[in-house]
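User: Could you check the structure of this?
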Amino acid sequence: MSKVATKLRNWLGLDYEDVEDEFVDEEPEIEQELEPIAPREERRRERGGRGKVVEMPVQQSNHNKLIVYRPVSFDDTQSIIDNLRSRKPLILNMESIEIDLAQRILDFMCGACSAMGGDICKISAKIFAVVPADYEIVGNSDGFKE
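Assistant: Sure, the predicted structure tokens are below.
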């Protein structure tokens, strides 16, 4: 048996000494002369100085941005909807506006989300997460979806 297999069996706590005697190879093992492993610097120079590092392409899209909005008037909903249409997730913070205006904006946002297949989720009393169709809101909050 090979030394690696023996070490593996010992590490796993398996004792196959009796079985090993039954399966003895008739041919002796031939030792091969191995070449020494070149140090890292030599190997790196041989490859032209470049390792196996592959550069990741830089993504120049707006899909990796989370936008936080604090609407002041109902007119701000158009830019919110434009960003949702561009598939950007949003945090809608309506803490600084009156309840009637916040309700009107929220109703409009719910309709727009529904039309675009998006989702809206209440984070706190006046803060909402609004995401397009290709996003999923995941969390362990007991909040409800509007």
